[in-house]
Write a structure and sequence with these properties.
Distance between the termini: 50 Å
Strand content: 15-25%
Number of strands: 22
Structural class: alpha/beta
Number of helices: 11
Shape: globular
Strand order of the largest sheet: 2-1-3-4-5
């Protein structure tokens, strides 16, 4: 009788499912798929391995479980040994596989589980941290094993030691400057600095200054600016020459919506700082903004949000100040594929950029991309802000390349408040950040609303 693996996941396509089934059969396993934790409860008794985003209730019901491979950053919720009927059950974390699509990541992890189960059993007896062929990094202890295919796996290893110092011992890792997490963060940080350098002099109210949109959005300009960056060192950048806007002669929220007809909206609105300018419109109940502080008081002066501008964004009657709001849409095959935006001052721009990169280049769905640790970099002097979840190994590499990391404490988060809606493979996906109020949801044809898995009557 074949041994069983339970896969609790909702984004697997037919092609990858066939590949997984073939690999499982080769190693004497069969895979049972569940679309949710609710569907898995009571049906995983015979599963020796579980992979996915399980609830604690599923873990408690898995009588034959020898290995739980968690695929998300909340793996520390499963460190309690009382959850497991088998006291030597292995807990592993496979989150953070930067540079692969979600489905490819699932293939990779399941093959690791299939091919290395017996190998891990031997290594566990010896204990210690290992980097195995194929970039698989593992932390082994007497009762808990941590498997990391990315930075979040490494961070969990550190956190797990704090939770269970008696159960987990020995951390050692060899990291290379070619690691996808490092190369991606370095490249994005350099692109952010280049973009903000150009933005400081090239943009302003188009009713007052002439913005060279064609040049700024051209691939040739992007290539010229990219050529200034180095894969080896962090740089500081001046604006490109000749892009200055020419004079003509003469607290934030965001939402994104898509419908079945292909219409899409991405909208950001703001009063800028807390309670705007502090003046409430009599009889109306809303505050006026203080967007005057978005203007440049003088060229090169820092605004309250840490930005600098040239003369294009100078104060002038009837003029609109430059804003960081960046409601965005990505089109694919002639229709909206992604509607995305954020709140958070200048971190709107850097957060929206990361959301688009994570969707387009790394195959993430909204529920994954809004929960990633974020980075923010305006200039080298101001530093590279990094949220908790990016490994210390990667941060050390970034320091070696000349970046100035500013670590955001684990109990805090930057004001990068992203939300998005995505249309992919005939389905809609919506998710909002959990850093502020709000959520993803859907309005159904029968008048019901579904809000992050909660149904409300009309």
């Amino acid at each position: 009788m074949a041994k069983k693996i339970g896969v609790i996941i909702d984004f697997l396509n037919d092609k990858y499912e066939r590949q997984l089934n073939a690999a499982a059969a080769k190693y004497g396993y069969e895979i049972e798929y569940f679309p949710s934790s609710a569907a898995a409860v009571g049906n995983v008794d015979e599963c020796e391995i579980l992979y996915g985003h399980c609830s604690q209730k599923v873990i408690r019901s898995a009588k034959s479980l020898k290995w739980y491979c968690c695929c998300w950053a909340g793996v520390d919720h499963f460190c309690d040994e009382s959850l497991y009927q088998n006291p030597d059950c292995r807990l592993t974390n496979s989150s953070g596989a930067y540079g692969t699509t979600i489905s490819e990541h699932l293939i990779m992890v399941c093959l690791m589980l299939l091919r290395r189960q017996m190998e891990y059993t031997e290594i566990i007896r010896a204990g210690g941290w290992e980097t195995l062929p194929g970039g698989i990094r593992s932390l082994h202890g007497a009762r808990i094993t941590v498997l990391g295919t990315g930075d979040i796996g490494t961070e969990f290893a550190r956190r797990a030691q704090a939770f269970h110092p008696a159960c987990i011992t020995g951390v050692r890792r060899t990291v290379r400057s070619s690691d996808p997490a490092f190369t991606s963060i370095h490249a994005i940080a350099e692109a952010m600095k280049l973009g903000f350098a150009d933005r400081s002099v090239a943009l302003g109210d188009p009713d007052f200054v002439q913005v060279d949109v064609e040049r700024l959005t051209s691939k040739a300009h992007a290539a010229e600016r990219y050529a200034l960056s180095s894969p080896e060192t962090a740089g500081e950048y001046a604006p490109a020459e000749g892009i200055e806007a020419k004079e003509y002669p003469g607290n934030t929220s965001h939402f994104a919506v898509m419908d079945r007809f292909g219409n899409a909206v991405s909208q950001t609105q703001t009063v800028r700082d807390w309670f705007g300018c502090g003046i409430v419109v009599d009889g109306c109940g809303f505050v006026l903004n203080n967007a005057m502080s978005d203007f440049s008081a003088k060229p090169g002066a820092l605004t309250s949000q840490g930005l600098t501008y040239g003369s294009a964004n100078s104060i002038q009657g009837g003029k609109t100040p430059l804003s960081s709001m960046a409601p965005s849409m990505v089109f694919k095959d002639g229709r909206p594929y992604l509607a995305i935006g954020a709140a958070g001052g200048p971190r709107i721009i850097t957060g929206t950029l990361q959301g688009i990169v994570n969707a387009v280049d790394f195959g993430m769905l909204p529920e994954q991309l809004v929960r990633q640790p974020y980075l923010n970099c305006l200039t080298r002097e101001q530093g590279l802000e990094l949220e908790f979840g990016i490994s210390e190994d990667t941060i050390r590499l970034l320091e070696q390349k000349g970046h100035r990391p500013v670590r955001v404490p684990v109990d805090q988060a930057m004001s990068t408040m992203l939300n998005s809606v995505m249309y992919v493979d005939g389905e809609y996906h919506a998710a909002g950040t959990q850093r502020v109020d709000g959520c993803g949801g859907a309005l159904l044809s029968d008048g019901h609303m579904v809000l992050d898995w909660s149904s409300q009557e009309d």
